[in-house]
Amino acid sequence: xxxxxxxxxxxxYGIMPLLIFLARICDVSIGTMRIIFVSKGKxxxxxxxxxxxxxxxxxxxxxxMQNLDNxxxxxxxxxxxxxxxxxxxxxxxxxxxxxxMIRIITHQNGLDLVMNLNDNGYGxxxxxxxxxxxxxxxxxxxxxxxxxxxxxxxxxxxxxxAFYTIEDVKAVNEGIFPxxxxxTVFPFINILREWxxxx
Length: 199
Prior knowledge:
The chain is an alpha+beta fold. The chain is built from six helices and four strands.
């Protein structure tokens, strides 16, 4: 009696676990992105990602339930979950979505840093304050997350010992921002940005 390919040991202990592993990577990565979009208030994108996330998860878990005696599937499921978290974090880092506020405290003339930031297309506000020992300048600037590295380089050139903190900002109204760069690593995010702009 011949055994079909789908009933063979190679499929059960090789192909099937691999498919479950890949499915878990996909759904966990999508889940990571969904959480990010929810935190950023992207109400139109998060439900779509949630749909595909659950759909892929149901397919993966159904295959495990159909083969409860195949422990290789369990390992593939867990490994896919762990890898999916890692992949999702990499994707989130590459997309660099969102807006961040940088709060800078420097003993040097803060107006010079404000002018430097303005010359590079970044809005900034300086306020005089009192530190533990002397007067300091407290500077605020709001930047797109994908511009954060450039701004930190400007701050470091101005004063390598400047103290600064970085916080996520959910939304802003108006402000000065340099032209948004196109994402060459994940081009589809450019389409999402244009779609959101039209909303």
